[in-house]
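Hi all, long-time lurker, first post. I run a small reading group and we've been trying to get comfortable going from sequence to structure in the token notation. Rather than ask abstract questions, I figured I'd post a concrete chain and ask someone more experienced to write out its structure so we can walk through it together at our next meeting. Sequence below, copied exactly:
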Amino acid sequence: MDAKDIAEELQDLVVEPENSEESKESPPEKMLTASQVNELVKRAKRKGEQKMQEQLDATRAELEQLKEQQGQQQEPQQQQQAPQGIDPAQLQQLVAQQIAQQQEETQRKQHEEQLHQEVNQVAKQYFGKMAQGTSLYDDFEAVTADFNPAEFPQLVYLANELDNTAAVIYELRKNPGKLAQLATLVKESPGIARSELSNLSQSIKRNDEAKRNLQEPQDPLNRLKPSPVGTDSGSKSVRDFKSASFLRG
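-- Answer (accepted) --
Happy to help. Here is the structure in token form:
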């Protein structure tokens, strides 16, 4: 109930005291007593309250209608999603499947982390061994400059197991046919490829050993040979006397 509704009821009405002097001299005007005014006020309040109540009822009706519409739209989705009753065995199976999936995910992450660490370790060892190649061959950098280990990951992994990795890679790069053969073999049969790389490694070692032996200087004493001329001790033997010229006749 607001002041506007009350003002509409009292718009042209004037309330004055009953014993005023002006009332005796002027003609009587339309006047209301205090009780009538109170009644009008109450009536105006009831009218305003009724009007407000009608508005509230209309608003409630609209809200209820909206709720019903939303409920009708959501009900089919809920019916589709709602399970039609799950027995304990089925529930246990679902829980077991979920646990198994979580375990597989955990194992997969652990495997990836382990593989990542292993790859980093192999790469570190490989580049460390390759750095030694410059002290073995003068043209090592020139020969291996265009060798990309990322193009031969399996071959590099096996070559890294050897103790002369730099020499093996150097030899393979100097022989593209051998490199291509091993690159194919390592994909089809890693075991045989490992054996071939080991044979190549041992062959390089034997060749290096043979070169070192040829380059090593011999001991000067070993080159001395005994003279066929005997040494004279100063004493004469019987043969010496027989061959003396003064004893010949």
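A couple of things your group might point at:
The CA atoms of residues 218 and 224 lie 11 Å apart.
The longest helix spans residues 34-81.
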